[in-house]
Design brief:
The chain is an alpha/beta fold. The protein has 13 helices and 15 strands. It is globular and about 55 Å long.
Length: about 400
Amino acid sequence: MICLDNLFTGAEANIEHLKSNPLFEFVHHDVEFPYHTETLDEIYNLACPASPIHYQYDAIKTIKTSVLGAINMLGLAKKTNAKILQASTSEIYGDPVVHPQVESYWGNVNPIGIRSCYDEGKRCSETLFMDYHRQNNIRIKIIRIFNTYGPRMLPNDGRVVSNFVVQALQDHDITIYGTGDQTRSFQYIDDLIEGMVRMMNTEDEFIGPVNLGNPNEFSILELAEKVIQLTGSKSKLVFKPLPHDDPKQRQPDITLAKEKLNWKPAIELEDGTIITSKTTDFLGASAALLLNALKYLAGIEHDEKLIKPEAIEPIQALKVNFLGGKNPRLHSDEVLIVLALTSVSSENAKRAMEQIPKLRGCQVHTSVMLSEADSKTFKRLGVDLTCEPVRSGLKLY
């Protein structure tokens, strides 16, 4: 298995446990550029940031990733005679007027809005896949992925499940955009992977597209209340204006997936263990849990009730020893989580730095995108911050 990633939103730490496997190879590569290899059986084209804050950060790169990435991967499939799967999206349907959404629905998409770089990029990718199939007989599969959540999501991912869980775990106000009446459906990552593999293994004549998502629909307000309940949070709800082009409802019709793949989601959002134990595992644990675990491991005063394996294990696994030595060099996305600096707030970052004064003077290298305010906070607190991709093979010591 060859894993290509430019680490724009990912981190090598997520695949650290796979690197010792002789059948696994990681290649730091951007699909905007061709990739050359001689032999392949299957290609899963998953490339493209999917969170609005990430794909709007560089809209031109987002659409290039979808369009040029599709062209390059389809060219590779043609060269190697590989079967190729396109990870498309429910954003294909835009702000739908058909509910729930079936694969035959063409969608209601704004082609010139702030979300268009992602929506139209994915729509163009589907067009390219179909044209390469019709013109060059490439064996293709197309899936349309609805809202998905699970371990190793970035706390500053910007999507609703990660936002709510991170805010709830720290007893911060939970931010709801609009009235909260807009609806979404949420599928756990394990269900998605099962659906993807089943789709890839269908007969060549069946190409899709196929919706993969959980048809159980929740309002955003219901989700927020459920997260507060299941995490035991003291968070309060605050309401802000709805972002432009935010869809009012999103729910998949999965009749085709049931019929052709014998697939339906097995893990429901109502399962409290998913919310409390699995979705708190974004990059190992929430910022609050990691900071507390770091204080525990450093022998600093901490909250015993928050000492949980999902917080301690990532720190131990990273072997990040930045409390000893002079001006130690840190290099990983997790360091930002340890510092409580991602989506948490600059104020929390400042408190973290005050609690662990030896962090001053550290050099922090990260591939996580930071807001201008957080970057200024780093500088003010005496941290030498460099944003760059995490280089392949670099040890997290």
